[in-house]
Design brief:
CATH architecture: Alpha-Beta Complex
CATH class: Alpha Beta
Order of helices and strands: EHEEHEHHEHEHEEHEEEH
CATH topology: DHBP synthase
Number of helices: 8
Helix content: 25-40%
Length: 204
């Protein structure tokens, strides 16, 4: 496992690791993330094993709205929220367009996805096919890493690369909003508040 300062060269190397089936740690606009190619089953399983969990879906980040629309079915509410809050720390749960392994969706027909606003995460995602796994870099139930050093202490040589993008400015994970049901529901509070969301959609 290597720890590299996030720059053009190291981001390219890390994207190649992802596309080859590796697992990496990288900075996001919230906490550090664990990532892989969601289409590679054994890589997704490896992330679940690393975190010590196997019953929660793995969230995704995308580099742009076109990539989002390839994997989930957007609806009018999602479009409104995307226009207001993306790129940014709002994860939307939407019906899936693609079939991933159980390690990604845990048998559901939905996916959690957002467009990242972090320049390193965005560029890494662009170079890795447009969509990658983005689950918090932690052991299940414990604090998430907010620096490359913390991530290295947690995972050691169990990951293939750690991109160092400095210390996280926001130290809690993204807001998660389920839009797959008739009534939108916040599943996890985060940087985007209920009141901010309610200004865009009225039936929360």
């Amino acid at each position: 496992m290597s720890v590299l300062e996030a720059n053009e060269k190291s981001i390219k190397i890390t994207s190649e690791i992802i596309l080859a089936g590796g697992v990496v740690v990288y900075p996001t606009e919230t906490v550090y993330g664990l990532g892989c190619d969601p289409a590679i089953d054994y890589a997704a399983k490896r992330i679940c094993d690393l975190k010590g969990r196997d019953n929660k879906p793995l969230p995704l980040i995308a580099s742009d709205i076109e990539s989002v629309k390839k994997v989930v079915k957007m609806n009018p509410t999602a479009n409104l929220l995307a226009e207001k809050f993306w790129p940014g720390p709002l994860m939307l749960i939407l019906p899936s367009r693609v079939v991933y392994s159980k390690w990604i969706n845990q048998g559901t027909n939905t996916l959690g996805i957002r467009i990242t606003s972090h320049p390193v995460a965005k560029h890494l995602t662009e170079l890795s096919g447009g969509v990658i796994v983005s689950t918090s870099a932690n052991l299940s139930g414990l604090e998430s890493a907010i620096s490359a050093q913390q991530a290295s202490q947690i995972f050691g040589k169990k990951v293939d690369m750690v991109l160092d993008g400095g210390v996280s400015k926001v130290t809690h994970s993204s807001t998660v909003l389920d839009l797959s049901q008739e009534k939108p529901q916040i599943l996890r509070a985060g940087p985007i508040s209920r009141s901010q969301i309610s200004e865009v959609i009225k039936n929360l």
